[in-house]
Structures are given as C-alpha cells and as structure tokens.
Amino acid sequence: MTAMRRATGAAGGARRLEGRLVALGVTGSIAAYKAVELLRLLTAEGADVVVLLSASAARFVGPLSFAALSRHPVETELMELLPDGRIGHVVIADSADAIVVAPATAHWLGAMANGLAGDVVTAACLATSAPVVVAPAMDGDMWTHPATRSNVARLRDAFGYAVVEPGSGPLASGQSGVGRLAELPAIVDAVVAAIGDRPVRQPAVDARPPLVAGLPREADLVGRHVVVTAGGTREPIDPVRYIGNRSSGKMGVAIAEAALDRGASVTLIAADVSVPLPDERARVVRVETTGQLRGALLEALFGGGGGGGAPSPLAARFDALVMAAAVADFTPAAPADRKLARGESLSLELRPTPDLLAEVARIVRGLDGEGSETREPVTPTPLLVGFAAETGSLERAGAKLRAKRLDLLVANDVAEAGSGFGTDTNRVVILDAAGGRDELPLLSKREVADRILDRVAGALDDRDAASQTAGMQEASR
Fold first, then answer.
1. What's the whole-number mean pLDDT along residues 314-335?
2. Catalytic residues
C-alpha cells in the first residue's frame, strides 16, 4: 500500500460510499489481483465491502486476502452457508447497495447475459435488484469478438448494467490492444454513480453479511510509532484513598495489541488497568495520577523537554496518539499526607484536572492556551484520537471533537449493555474532523480497535501523501 494510493481515496472530503454495502464480484482473469486494490479504494470511500469469488478467480487470488481486508466471509460456493445458516449470496443480493464485477471475463459476460447461474457472482447478480457495475478484462481479440460485443450490449441495454469498458495497453497474451481492466478510480466512480442518491437498501447490521472475527490485519503500521493510553487515573485523597473511575483498560490495551500486530512500535502509557499488558512487545510506562499521565505524554512528545521552551518547529516523536485512558475530571485540591481518620462526614474540595488531549493538540498544532498560532506546528503532524464515554446520548461528542481539535473521536454510551467499562465488547461511533460519522455495531473490543486503526493507518498514509505532494511542488518552483 502506498501513500500516494491512499491520497486518491476520500482524503480531504466526505467519503462517497459511507454506510453503503458494496459486493465485489471477482472472476477468473489474470487481472483478479487488481481486485484487492479495488477493495481498498472502495473501503477508503467508506463502503462496507463483501467479496464474491468465482472458482477460477480463486486460482489467481486466494479468499484469505479478501477476507482479511473486507472482514467478511468470502463467498465461493453456491451452496455454502454463512455461520448463522443463511445462504451467503442471497444475503448479499438482498442487502448490497451495488454489485461491481471486476474483472469480468468473456466467459462470465456470456453466462450472465444468458442467465446461467453457475457461480456465486452470476447467482448474486441474478438475485439482486441493486445496480450492477461490470468492468470487463480479457484479450483484445476476445473483447472485439461479436459474441462478446453482443453479450455486453445485452447487459447494458436489456439489463441496465453500467459497463466500464476496458482500456488499451499491453495484455497478458503479450500483445497490445484494448482489453485491460479499466483504471480502478474510474470503476469506483461508476459504483458511486450507479448508487446515486438511492437510500441505503439494508441499514440493519444483522441483515447484512456477518463480520468474521480473528482474521489477520495487514502490516500497515510498520515504521509507525503509536502512543496509546489505557486505564483510569487515580487522584489521591490520602495515602490509602483515591478518586477513580470504572475503567478497566481493556479498550486501550486492545488498541495497543492490535497496533503491535500491525507492525507499529507502541508506547503504552498505562494507568490503573485490570488486564495483562504487552510488556514484552511494547514500551510500557506505568502512571497513577493525571499529573503523571501528563508528564508521560510530554515525555513521549518532547523526549522529556516539556512544552514551554521547546524549539520551533518541533519534530514529531510519534505518528499517532490514541487517548483511550479514562482521565479523572477532578482531583482533591489538598490531598492529605497521612491517612484521614474515619469520621461522620468528609468534605473534599475538588479542582478540575487539565484536559491532557486538548493540551497535546494545541502543542502539536502550534497554538497557545487561547488558540492563537504562536509557533510552528509539530511536523509531521501526529494523528490525535480521543475517546468520549457518555451516558444516554452522544450528542456532545461532535462538540468535543471540535473543541479538542482532534482528528478522530470514538464515542460510546457506557450505560448501554455490553458497551460500558469492564466489558469485552463495545458499540462505538467514530467521528472525524471532516464531519464523517461511522456507527459500528456491537463488536469485540479487539475488533473495535482494528476498526479504529484502519482509520488511523489510512489517515497517516493520506498525511504522508499530502506532504510528498507539497514537497514536490515546492521543489518544482
């Protein structure tokens, strides 16, 4: 995956397929390997992608690659059932907002034009009322043969399919001519156009193809340094008592472990946690109070220098900060240095703790406490991800993202069953600075971690691509 490739996706604007389910049918052309990249581009536009693979296509690209990237079971057999007993290609036909067949072979065009449902791709297209986009790829003489042209005309004129015609250039046969799979961004554009402003066909997650847990993610964070905070801070009342919260640290540790599995170098700043830490693989910094957590963050950012007299511009010492720790909002104004005696009542004066993530955001963006630009920002600018634990409503989440100047905010209702502190699952909404909103179903915390890191990895690629482009433009002046 290249940074420039990521830049051709939805960077800098609304994702055009947000919330859509797109079925990607792959048939047995040597261009089948390009379908992996097409899946990435569709995902970058916000689509939930499920793959249908013909038997001949599976000889070129294995199902595991598509499953790992789509997080869905790959449909390869007509009679194969989903884990919940449903027929896979029928579920896809009933719930997909569009089906795109790329590459489509001459054999598949002929079978589809005559309604011969001999594979899952053809069967799903026959069973759906969703728009279908077809991108053929084959040898030049096959493409120009009257049989192929007749089949294409029937799909376009009688069935209403959108056909993204192949381009010209070197072919697998060694010849040169028309037959190459169209450029992938053009295929994505055709899918967007085919869906148009139609309503989402099946918004209910349970009615869509299921996700598959436990699949490997690609090593898309190799060379990245990710800082993760986890657990709840403890603010001392006296040497034996403290103010704390219910955070177990499970979400933060899951993010750290997922980042490690994807090749990142990870610094885990752990407050009070109730789960094992990946001490052997990550650099673990243990803290207890909000003040100690602040010091650890400044150490990670500045290498121990603190923010006051740091040079300008600053070089970034990490690529992303995922602030999953539950930081206490208040701390005793005057903690006792000895254990307080039991009494009838106890009054505590509390003062607010600093907003650590907002402080880091100001520093990396070159802002002072009032939000004014006072120095050069940290370069390259680290990606900042915050968490918002709410109860009853997530209405305040968007305002928090903007106020803290974050790139992503992960919000959840901790009062919801299965989504609170200490659970193994979570239901979150991921908000981004461009106004995007990704509502995830109830998932394991590890799966939530990977969904967050999918966004982090893509955003870092976009950041680096923009930097490369700016550098080339500067050099050309």
1. 90
2. 245
